[in-house]
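Hi,

Apologies if this is the wrong queue. I'm a grad student, and the batch job for Homoserine O-acetyltransferase from Daejeonella lutea produced an output file that my downstream script rejects. I'm not sure whether the problem is my script or the file. Here is the sequence I used:
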Amino acid sequence: MNSEKLHNHKKPFKLESGKKINDLQIAYHTFGSLNEKKDNVIWVCHALTANSDVFDWWKGLFGDNCLFNPKEHFIVCANVLGSNYGTTNPLSKNKVTGLPYYLSFPEFTVRDLAAAHQILADYLELPEISLLIGGSLGGQQAMEWSILEPHRIKKLVLIAANAQHSAWGIAFNESQRLAITSDRTFYSQSPSGGKKGLKVARSIALLSYRTYGTYGATQLEVGNEKVKDFKASSYQNYQGEKLVNRFNAYSYWYLTKAMDSHNVGRKRASIGDALRQIKAKTLVIGIVNDVLFPLEEQQFLAKNIPGARFAELNSFYGHDGFLIETEILTKEIGTFINNAETENQVISLHKIA
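Support response: The file is valid. Your script probably expects a header line. Output copied below for reference.
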């Protein structure tokens, strides 16, 4: 059984910027039960526009008969700060003014997202996270949390992520924000503000989530006579409308800024030094034809996280492969978990001897 819950944090939540959010609310889902030892926790950090119901959007990896299932594990997924799926966000009411925040909402970073996860884990009284997993923005959060609390995270799976958001990724995000802010309704102080801009932003984003080959195979025209109404055009419009119907421009604007902020080296000795703070047994998975998070970014992670394993995933879908190629992920992650448990048994035997 799964259940959606809300945690209302009683203390002011101090952001990396020094600003504070009062009355922080965190929406989250749990699946399964915590065992007596409290060592069966699987924590999922979700990507940009997902929600806390991981059984809905990561089917095949999470589910009743999947690698991560509620019979064996206590699975937790929290909706991130700024998202409109239940956690405090720009459309939440500012108790000082009695009105939604909109653009007065304080900007936040990936490190702040990780800090909110820490708050929820403390509330749930989870002394350790057996396995922490995330892809894309979710991987960035998982990485930060593993640096902030290296002894709490026992195993770590990072998929299609990076140690520092690239100039290329920031340029994509800025292009999306330019689209949103060119929609004058974005400044209208209305829940529906910026919808047209958000539709364009999603169309831009999709180009980075897929590949030339993906479009060539799925949106290819039959025949040579068409001069308008192309499949690719319809597809971009459809995907844009689909997001507009379930998300809002303000959350999207803030979350892309948070992704841009990602740099594990900030206020630390260096990026490499920060990654070396991770104590968790780590699996890094890169997607060979990922346009947004190129493979060399995951190779860098695997090289600098102590003892990390690295695996390549070939996917027709590019970056979105981390959500779709669940059969391959199940095999790679399952092997990683089994090897990690075997290593623990060997270490235990050595200690006994």
